[in-house]
Specification:
Distance between the termini: 25 Å
Number of strands: 12
Strand order of the largest sheet: 8-7-6-9-10-11-12
Number of domains: 2
CATH class of the largest domain: Alpha Beta
Bound molecules: (2R)-2,3-dihydroxypropanoic acid
Largest sheet: 7 strands, parallel
Structural class: alpha/beta
Length: 314
């Protein structure tokens, strides 16, 4: 029986199926650091890792027992896939099954930030609400506004669809390659043009190519009443530049699900009332997380049969 390390506890039916097919260890100690990941590559035949585990290049040095990483998550910027490929390690991910849940979090953040839901919730819970007032916590209208999507992949398109057909929004998008989409949406040539929309939503993959794509210059292209949403990866945004813009009132607010050094969230950001801050909930529905686990396991099972896993990425 092959050995399988599952690096975090996942949906019980998936773990049960894995136990019937593999000698399974479920890691209990949280995210794997580089040294633990490197040791795991020597101890197990296959690993089911996830976001936060450190599978950087050094982990793939030397003689490895593990030849399959069935990642739980669509994003795999925590795995150096080129180093994995060079070491003969197959890597797979879990696209599609989390598109709707993640797009829904994008809309949650657009609405919650525009309508100051975080501030309102804090006011009610603290007992400081003094009752209805015509000028209390006035937010900004979402319906009919413009949204700029940065990265028009599956999740970007799902957000665009919701914004346009649900809220009558005009959609512009910035994408590194030309993209035709089956809905009214205009691809713009520069990042700055998309950043100038009323709402900006970042949905690019993480990784070296997009690190700090949203820098101080990009943020400066936003309107002073613009709202910024990031549901991709924290490192895509220069967090210090974003905080600076929020503190100066150069933009109206931000809704964030991801951070540069998760789970650390800078105190300056936590102090800002004009931000809605979520703890990386993009795919966090029970249904989606079970489907992600199943897909990750199915990829590992395919690999044990000598097949190329359906969601292989390298
Ligand atoms: C992913 O799948 O990459 C998400 O960020 C995890 O929810």
């Amino acid at each position: 029986m092959k050995t399988l390390l599952i690096t975090r506890d996942i949906a019980a039916p998936v773990v049960a199926q894995a136990r019937a097919l593999f000698d399974v260890t479920v890691h209990a100690g949280g995210a794997l650091d580089g040294a633990t990941a490197a040791q795991a590559m020597r101890d197990y035949d296959a690993i089911l890792p996830t976001l936060g585990d450190d599978f950087s290049a050094e982990v793939f040095d030397g003689d490895l027992r593990c030849k399959m990483l069935g990642n739980f998550g669509v994003g795999y910027n925590h795995i150096d896939v080129a180093a994995a490929r060079d070491a003969g390690v197959t890597v797979s991910n879990t696209p599609d099954v989390l598109t709707d849940a993640t797009a829904d979090i994008g809309l949650t953040l657009i609405l919650a930030t525009a309508r100051r839901a975080g501030e309102g919730e804090r006011m009610v819970r603290s007992g400081e609400w003094g009752g209805f007032g015509p000028k209390n916590l006035l937010g900004t209208h979402v319906t009919g506004k413009t949204v700029g999507i940065i990265g028009m992949g599956r999740i970007g398109q799902a957000i665009a669809h919701r914004c346009h057909f649900g809220f009558g929004m005009e959609v512009v998008f910035f994408n590194r390659s030309p993209k035709s989409v089956e809905m009214p949406a205009q691809q713009v040539d520069t990042l700055a043009e998309a950043m100038a929309a009323d709402f900006v939503v970042v949905t690019t993959p993480g990784g070296a190519e997009t690190t700090k794509l949203i820098d101080a210059t990009a943020i400066a292209a936003m309107k002073s009443n613009g709202i910024f949403v990031n549901i991709s990866r924290g490192e895509v945004v220069d967090e210090a530049a974003l905080i600076d813009a929020l503190e100066r009132g150069a933009i109206a607010g931000a809704g964030l699900d991801v951070y540069e050094n998760e789970p650390a969230v800078p105190a300056r950001l936590r102090a800002l009332e004009n931000c809605v801050l979520l703890p990386h909930l993009g795919s966090a529905t029970a249904e989606t997380r079970q489907a992600m686990g199943q897909m990750a396991l199915d990829n590992i099972i395919a690999w044990t049969r000598g097949e190329i896993p359906q969601q292989a990425v390298n």
